[in-house]
Amino acid sequence: MPVEAPKWRLIVSWVGRQKAITGQGFHHGGFTVWRCLTLLLLLSALLVAQAPQHPTIPAAARPSAHFDPQAATDAWLATLPAQFRARSNAYFEGTYWLTLWDYLAGLAVALALLQTRLSARMRDAAARFARPPFLQTLLYWVQFILFNSLVTFPLAAYEGFFREHQYNLSNQTFASWFRDQAVGLALAIVFGGLAVCVLFAVVRRLPHTWHIWGTVVVVVFVAVVMVVAPVFIVPLFNTPRVLANSPIKAEILSLASASGISARDVYQIDASRQSNRVSANVSGFLGTERITLNDNLLRRCSPECVLSVMGHEMGHYVLHHVQIGLLFFAVTVVLMFAVLRWSLDRSLLRWGPRWEIRGVGDPAVLPLALIILSTLSLLFTPVNNTFTRTQEYEADLYGLNAARQPDGEAEADLLLGEYRKLDPAPWEEFLFFDHPSGRTRIYAAMRWKGGSLCLFDAALPCSIAPK
Predict the structure, then answer these.
(1) Counting Cβ atoms within 10 Å, is residue 102 exposed (0-12), middle (13-18) or buried (19+)?
(2) Is it the case that residue 394 has pLDDT exceeding 60?
(3) For residue 371, which of 394, 354, 348 has the smallest C-alpha distance?
């Protein structure tokens, strides 16, 4: 949704005109009556300008005896200019190709490491500096991740910085973006290094069943990251702070209490330092649960929109999507590891001597393992997207029933439409969307509204016959 010119600029411009008329400015000595009134007007206007507005509901989406969910959905989508839709479509469709280029770039780097035997030389270098296999694996991982990050940096810079600025989706300077990338790289070295070291230890100790026990290791590591993320990882990128007491905070906590979430506070992060995207989440696990919304959500959304988004996020928590997602992830990993074990055994029989790889427990095999896993992940994308998209749709329905803000949901979906295609073809939604499309989500909200009209107009029945 295009962002209107900040109202404070209009206010400052107006004050400037008054200064010209009166011949007085703030730099003059003495606190005149005019300047006092001007300051009061300025402060009042700023407070009004920052107060969230209620969503502007299209005529066809307003409650009536002739309410039609499909017409209401079309009306909401029609509020966006054609050039906005074209820009959003171009951005999102570009990610289809970027997925392919990312895969091919990773494939090229891994093959180069194998074919040039650089992977084997990195293993030998690690062995010269450390004797314990655990430390050798860690040193190999550091070399591998640094080499891979360096070689793929141009693509990462285009994808994460230049392209985001091209579509006006980023607020970061290059220095700020690079700093976030460096922090992410450090986390990958530490957490990724620990995971890889433990996995190789399992492979060496349990050569026939490592795909099962390796899955346990991966799931445990993911669960640990989920536990520590809100407290230790998020603050490395953004500054969380307790949201000041306000009516919207009270409503969020009330909504959480009604959903059975024992939250005493709501946190806000300064996501606007990176972009204007709206977001919120109920993160954490096993005691570190935290309700967090970003400052863009408060700045750009109406109270109805904020409550709709928070209801959705609480739906994930109440519906146990974290636990179900971990179970789905475990099944996926064990299947992929089973295929990986079979593929590695056969690939090493044929090419192992040529690449100087000594077996599946050799760290130098990592590029080959990543080739196989990235290929499986690419092929598995539609299945993974369908699972995630189903959970998101369930959370949408929960949020509608909990927050009862269908128009707020539509407002949020249009904002998400800044970088997600709003009305894709069915095959696109199946293959590439890990969330329901904007049309799907708005239609679900309008259908819910059509079945609850009495909540918005007491003169109307609670539901009408579908058209």
Answers:
(1) middle
(2) yes
(3) 348
